[in-house]
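Hi C.,

You asked whether I'd gotten around to modeling the 139-residue construct. I have! Everything is below, sequence then structure, no commentary in between.
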Amino acid sequence: MSATAVHPARAAGEASRAAAAAKDKDTWLALFADDAVVEDPVGPSHFDPEGKGHRGLDAISRFYDMTIAIADSLEFLIDDSLVCGDENVNIGTIRTAVGGTMIDAEGVFVYRVNGDGKLVSLRAFWEVDRAMKTARPVS
């Protein structure tokens, strides 16, 4: 890869965040391999009670409908981004507005791609309770 080339995992992560912020479901889903898994957040949550992740495009589509689709807006504030192997790790905050409330989820967001540059894994490490403590009216 040349010095000016964008790492495939970083490119996929950037494209994922852009499509989510634009609320472009079709573009977002097209970034994933057929057998991909989304864990957001990692482990059991109200989005994924068993904590096994959303596996395959149908499950990822349902995840989108219950998370991204209901947001009034999403903003990704990335403080740092690192690439290793076929993965891109981002440290930052996802700022979400829903129903007049703004919430910040600070965390680590990991994107892994296959040889075709398709996302095979999106793992978001953030704490629901910690994020909920940031809830405030949208200004």
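If it helps when you're writing up: Helices lie at 8-21, 25-30, 56-66, 128-132.

Thanks,
B.
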